Amino acid sequence: xxxxxxxxxxxxxxxxxxxxxxxxxxxxxxxxxxxxxxxxxxxxxxxxxxxxxxxxxxxxxxxxxxxxxxxxxxxxxxxxxxxxxxxxxxxxxxxxxxxxxxxxxxxxxxxxxxxxxxxxxxxxxxxxxxxxxxxxxxxxxxxxxxxxxxxxxxxxxxxxxxxxxxxxxxxxxxxxxxxxxxxxxxxxxxxxxxxxxxxxxxxxxxxxxxxxxxxxxxxxxxxxxxxxxxxxxxxxxxxxxxxxxxxxxxxxxxxxxxxxxxxxxxxxxxxxxxxxxxxxxxxxxxxxxxxxxxxxxxxxxxxxxxxxxxxxxxxxxxxxxxxxxxxxxxxxxxxxxxxxxxxxxxxxxxxxxxxxxxxxxxxxxxxxxxxxxxxxxxxxxxxxxxxxxxxxxxxxxxxxxxxxxxxxxxxxxxxxxxxxxxxxxxxxxxxxxxxxxxxxxxxxxxxxxxxxxxxxxxxxxxxxxxxxxxxxxxxxxxxxxxxxxxxxxxxxxxxxxxxxxxxxxxxxxxxxxxxxxxxxxxxxxxxxxxxxxxxxxxxxxxxxxxxxxxxxxxxxxxxxxxxxxxxxxxxxxxxxxxxxxxxxxxxxxxxxxxxxxxxxxxxxxxxxxxxxxxxxxxxxxxxxxxxxxxxxxxxxxxxxxxxxxxxxxxxxxxxxxxxxxxxxxxxxxxxxxxxxxxxxxxxxxxxxxxxxxxxxxxxxxxxxxx
Length: 706
Fold this sequence. Notes:
Blueprint: H1 2-48, H2 54-57, H3 65-107, H4 114-163, E1 166-167, E2 174-175, H5 178-189, E3 194-195, E4 202-203, H6 206-217, E5 222-223, E6 230-231, H7 234-245, E7 250-251, E8 258-259, H8 262-273, E9 278-279, E10 286-287, H9 290-301, E11 306-307, E12 314-315, H10 318-329, E13 334-335, E14 342-343, H11 346-357, E15 362-363, E16 370-371, H12 374-385, E17 390-391, E18 398-399, H13 402-413, E19 418-419, E20 426-427, H14 430-441, E21 446-447, E22 454-455, H15 458-469, E23 474-475, E24 482-483, H16 486-497, E25 502-503, E26 510-511, H17 514-525, E27 530-531, E28 538-539, H18 542-553, E29 558-559, E30 566-567, H19 570-581, E31 586-587, E32 594-595, H20 598-609, E33 614-615, E34 622-623, H21 626-637, E35 642-643, E36 650-651, H22 654-665, E37 670-671, E38 678-679, H23 682-705
Antiparallel strand pairs: 1-2, 3-4, 5-6, 7-8, 9-10, 11-12, 13-14, 15-16, 17-18, 19-20, 21-22, 23-24, 25-26, 27-28, 29-30, 31-32, 33-34, 35-36, 37-38
Helix pairs in contact: 1-4, 3-4
């Protein structure tokens, strides 16, 4: 009985399959429609060229109402597609029948009658496949309905075009209206009849002029429904929306990188092709983009038409003005989700995020170094090429970066626009001001990953960490010496070249570094701006203050790798280690004597030159070393700053105090290697050694007499 019921169900299914066959015939008809749609797609491609003219065809939308009536017929096709969806549901029921047919295969062994049922189940499988094909047909029919609508519109437009055809006599292009032809002809004639009443800029058509006017009025009628940002053109809004959706439909066929708009994709492709179609008329420089060329031209014209209404500062680009105005308003709308740091521009955020990701997409073509922004790569490559395109307008000095030129020119102008909020000191760079203010606030945000030391500048941290890593990437082109900083290398190479570009304004002395000149001029001015927080002593160098304060704190962070001795200054450690290595890199230019320290060489050479630059302020006596002058002046002042910790005796020199305290401690560090006798000072040991020097020849003469 069960088999009979199933056979009845199968007969019903067979009837349904016959209906499906009819649907299949309809599908064949639809395939013919599809062929027609392909022909229509060709028409669509032809009509794509006339997409610009469709803006005016919109005005004739009233005529398209007739087309709408014809589209009702297509609704019937849509109803048929709904029927197909019902067929799809029936096909799902058939899949259940398939499961039952698998059970019937087991019943086959019990009954021969089920053989016929099995054949019918095979037919049902074919029906299922046809159902799946029909579901595809449904999708195709929906697409075809859309294509048909478009084709009817295009057919209608083609008829309009046939009725209204206006052809350009210059290039042969045809238009649907006389107005469109007139607008097109302005490309050939160069006519721009529509001008802005605010700035005088001219345009070929009224629509572009109206869009331009929104720059002056500030009108932004198109707003984002996600973030509320406004735009002057709908196309700008469409591109902006891709930020929220993450859509990047345009991809590079060379590297696969995706972009939100076609223009950026095309610009990116020029990186691969090397094409730079935009060239400067004033110099030989070429550019990837017209906007970059436009910005570059303002370097030659010195034009800065955009003025800040708050502080009066002028800018060459409106973009720069807008970025600058955010300093006054405090608006920082772009936030990093990794560290919550905020930025004024999307590009600044993008560059910052590469710190977290470690991405460095820009590689130097001369070495293996990589960078996270193209400007850093460009600046770096100038090290290899030696290019210095930025020349000082006051002297012949040239620079590889415009920021360095700007800073240099402030030496000539004396401009120092950035004032410290804690003291009266002024600076010519905001970064220098920021670093200086950290002295007042005590802020040291950059911590060493190897030790607990902190710094107020990332460059100082980087330099410090090279002590731990031992990295010295910068090599001297004249000798084999290497350095951890490019500035140190540059200073060192001046020893070889003899270059000393910085001259003292008070005397004829010259220096290889501006910092050395500044320090030297404090000898003339007597300025000592750095005061010890533990005592009243003042210094003309921050480094000297730091070294001095270590006397109070007892800090000695630098340990010798050869012995247990520690030092408060890295330079002292370096000088000390030369005792172990025997290195004496500084050679006297007058004799063959060599020295382990540059200051020792400098002092020694004064023996040859007779130079005594340090003059006593109380008498006419002069000295070759500043410490000798200081010691001498204590004779006039009777100053004895060094007091014995065991008694009340005082001394004018620290070495005398140290020697005196050995009387109390009994320490005698200098021992004779002949007899073992010890002394408090080395000069007494040297005097004692002469006794042994006299004894040796005396003993030798006594032996010869025997």
